[in-house]
């Protein structure tokens, strides 16, 4: 007889199988937890990319506004008119309260 057959005849292999099965179940559970974490991170990445795109567009608008203010007087004049209510010398300002 082989040594494996002797071992099987002398000892019950069911406890060993139960231990191996419990170990497999434990590893499988940990694997599924890791997959869930990966899915959560992927969702967070998608949300962060959308936020980055929004902020990038906002920054681009601010950059264009800064360049316009540095290069020309039209943007400065527009700001003065809109923010401060300023008018030119020969203009008449009509204000309609709401």
In short:
One of its GO terms (biological process) is FtsZ-dependent cytokinesis. This protein has 98 residues and is an all-alpha fold.
Descriptive notes:
With 98 residues, the protein is mostly helical. The chain has one domain. 80% of the residues lie in helices and 0% in strands. It is built from 3 helices and no strands. The protein has helices spanning 3-10, 14-71, 73-84. It is found in: Cell inner membrane.
Attribute tags:
98 residues, mainly alpha, 3 helices, rod-shaped, transmembrane helix, membrane, cell membrane
Please report the total strand number as a whole number.
0
Gyration radius (Cα, Å) is 37 Å
Indicate the percent of residues in helices. over 70%
Look at the structure and give the mean pLDDT: 83
- The fraction of residues in strands falls at under 5%
* Uncertain residue segments: none
* Whole-number count of domains: 1
Number of helices: 3
Kindly name the structural category.
mainly alpha
Return the string of H and E elements.
HHH
**Main beta-sheet annotation:** none
What sort of overall outline do the alpha carbons produce when their principal axes are compared? Answer: rod-shaped
The first-to-last residue Cα distance is 104 Å
């Amino acid at each position: 007889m082989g040594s494996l057959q002797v071992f099987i005849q002398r000892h019950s292999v069911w406890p060993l199988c139960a231990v191996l099965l419990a170990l497999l179940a434990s590893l499988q559970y940990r694997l599924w937890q890791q997959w869930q974490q990966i899915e959560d991170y992927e969702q967070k990445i998608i949300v962060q990319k959308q936020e980055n795109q929004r902020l990038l567009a906002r920054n681009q608008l601010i950059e264009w506004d800064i360049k316009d203010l540095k290069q020309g007087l039209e943007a400065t004049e527009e700001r003065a008119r809109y923010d401060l209510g300023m008018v030119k010398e020969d203009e008449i300002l009509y204000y309609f309260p709401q």
